[in-house]
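The material for today's practical consists of a large collection of protein records. There is nothing in a record beyond a sequence line and a structure line. Backbone structure tokens are a discrete shorthand for how the chain folds in space. Nothing more is needed to start thinking about how sequence determines fold. As an example, a complete record with its sequence and its structure tokens follows.
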Amino acid sequence: MAEERFDRFDFREAEPKWQQTWEKQQINKVTEDPGKPKYYALAMFPYPSGKLHMGHVRNYSIVDVIARFRRMKGYNVLHPMGYDSFGMPAENAAIQKGISPAVWTKANIAEMTEQLKQLGYSYDWDRAVYTYRPDYYKWTQWIFQQFYKNGLAYKKTAPVNWCPSCATVLANEQVEDGECWRCGSTVTKKDLSQWFFKITQYADELLNDLNQLQGWPERVRLMQENWIGRSEGAQLDFSVPAVGEKLTVYTTRPDTVYGVTFVVVAPEHPLVERLIEGGHIPTATVEQVRAFQEKMKGQNEITRTSTDTEKEGVYLGVDVINPFNGEKAQLWIANYVLMEYGTGAVMGVPAHDQRDFEFAKKIGLPIKVVIQNPEGNLDATTMTEAYTEAGSMANSGPFDGTLNEEGKAKVAAFAAEQGFGQGKVNYRLRDWLVSRQRAWGAPIPMIYCDDCGTVPVPEDQLPVLIPDDLDFSGQGSSPLARHEGFMNCACPQCGKAAKRESDTMDTFVDSSWYFLRYTDAQNGDQVFDKEKAAHWLPVDQYVGGIEHAILHLLYARFFTKGLRDCGYLTIDEPFKALLTQGMVCLDGTKMSKSKGNIVSPEEMIAKYGADACRLFIMFAAPAERDLDWTDAGIEGAYRFVNRFYRMVMSAIPTIHHARSLLPVQTGNMAAMMGALTMGELAEGLAKATTLTEADKDLRRITHATLKKVTIDLYERFAFNTAISGMMELTNAIYAYREKVAEAEQNTLVIAESIQTAVLMIAPFCPHLADELWHKLGFPTSIHLEPWAQYDEAVAQAQTVEIVVQINGKVRDRLDVAAGLNAAETEAAAMASPKVQEMIAGKQVAKVIPVPGKLVNIVVKG
């Protein structure tokens, strides 16, 4: 049958129409329903910086497909959206453009919300959260106080980035090549009193519970494991005769302690100051030390510890004593040792640590081999790099000949017995510094009183509001610190004059609990209702970029455990499964505004429609891989949308004719409009006795495709292969209607294949699907329909092709009945005339059948 001509899918008319219909009918609104299994589908929420980019579209399209599919599968789905709306961009805009951060943020949110709605995402907007609004940050402040009460929030002095010209603290991202992003002055380090969250209290649990997260990518779990950085080693005490005290070093290689030829402390180590104050360091050396300390203030820890950074240091003119052999070792400061890691002091073993080796070679320090390789030929004078592999301890006193892995525990035990050390577990993870000297963030709800000390703001006085009249000139200290009306207050305990905390919280705090607020977003009396949180949590599927694999996910896990221990949650982990989608690229390069290679979602929607954009971005690559945007790709998706539309529209008269062949029950609105329910179709086809081979073949393809798409969406998130399957089904429907005479076409078979196809495309192209569902005669939205059920017997192929190999080379291909066992598959292959001809006169040594795939015949002679 020739394809009938219909107008193209008018997305410009249909997409706004259905978006308004969904909003009016509130079909995406969700409440707790114990009668259905729950499913919490969540995308990482965006920062409202202006407009969506294609990376957003990919992330949110993935989750929308998941959410829509699960709803049709009978789940009660929570699918919310919000905005991570505090942070530097808004404050920078205020400084540069003279506009309030709140005004800038609100305008951007309005624009992005409109874009999200244009894309047809099925969000329950009643649950939206906006982290910059007082009704959200009130509870951020409340959580801070719960952590404070439970010992998880504390204050201590810590170094910050300081611009002396602007007289202000800078975030790490405001420091560019060691200079202030705004004025270009050299940035230094300055010690300030800062608030911390005690995430290290959960180090072991955060590490061990990674084993629960089998739904996470292995590489993300490994990244978190490495970030936590648990290591087993020893703390060893080297004596410092000059000041009569001990210097404790931490090492993961106590087996190498006899190879120490120098000891290094961080430039910031307090021992350095004591040595200077005590006059133990020569005057000329003190000047070198001060210059080196200043230089290190301008370098961040990433630069200092990079393997590419040249090792630098200053000898302090002081020696320490190795407690194991009584030998002296020079004491140095160096750039590659940080106060924040271990004890801020490391023992230098150049023969067996590459950093120490490079430092020793540059300075000319001794190298001593104490771990000998299996060949026994290591020589310090000829080594070109450190030996870090397994071996036997040598030049190590009583431990000579001990395998070094065994030696680690033995050396630590010996140190403990002798009283100059002990075994120690250490972590790379450090407590989370949450103080930010900025105004556009949640104010830390603490008050400082000369008489009462540090006092939490009473809960009934939360939120501590951000003033509307802040000075965002960019000069001097934080706008909050300069606002007298904000800073001056009364002590809640004694009533005397007091000062507020001028720091705000790191914006990572906002994103560490937003997924909890979604469970009860409108609650003005509680952070969330415990029962509602218990109903929805954990998040069943979380989707976001790999760039958040460490900090955001780690902090969210910490918040979950902390709130659990404060009595507000019952779960241990927030995200049951995680999908990290790939980037969207153009010509192989990640799209970014700075590179000027952005493809505008608005332009694509205006030209091709939201459904075509969604379809292409889900089809072009597997979800976890990078996607290369192409004009040809989006145009191809657009053509398929229209081809699919014409296929369904051309079949509607046929389907309505099929409806006339079946009885109509009273009150069946769909039937009165000419539609056939999927149940009626299944019942009618079950009774059919005159199906032709063409009918059976189309039914098989329909049910096989439905099975494939169901599995692809339910188990594998293989969105691209699911779409490929739907394209193949579309081709099969067209082929059936073209090759089978119209009078011989089975209207029930056509109706089943068409309606199944529309149901399957609904999660991907929601506007197209609802438009077609309505034209088919259904009175309600397709997104309220149940997912179609495939019949395994119908989906099963009647025959399959098997390959026949002789001595590994393909010699024949056979169509055999589906479902043959190994013996039957072998018999079919051996019966092939071509095979018989080729093995004639030869000895069959072995036959290896693989049912449904191949048979390999091994012959001799």
